[in-house]
Write a structure and sequence with these properties.
By secondary structure, this protein is mainly alpha-helical. It is 46% helix and 3% strand.
Amino acid sequence: MRHSLWDDAERMRTLERLRRVTPGTRPRWGRMHAGQMIVHLADQLRLALAEVPMPKPWPGPAKYQPLRWLLINVVPMPKGSRSFRELFLTPAGDFARDRAALEALLARAAARGPEGPWGGSPLFGRLSREEWGVLGWRHFDHHLRQFGV
């Protein structure tokens, strides 16, 4: 089964997991604290919603098929690897406020139709709604597992 943030049941399960994270939830790997993880996921959604400028694409082969499809749909996200600075735009602030903002972004993204506009990724370039749904779910899942939920 292919997971997507745009599937209502998957999104509700993801939100339930997200709500189990507290400011004191410690990561199993990596250096981010829970508040940083929340705003990091929100920054990804801002990229998806084209609310921040399209980042300069990385010059690697990830934007070309079939590698692009494999990385979005199959290849596990590596634990503890560095991410693009475009996914760390917002500093962590009040945890409850940041989580509420993330939930609102997720609702807006889920409600946006395929015509978009949809933004781009520094690794993959411009992505479709479907690609953002799968990549977003995998990104959320990766970080929620990082924090044990």
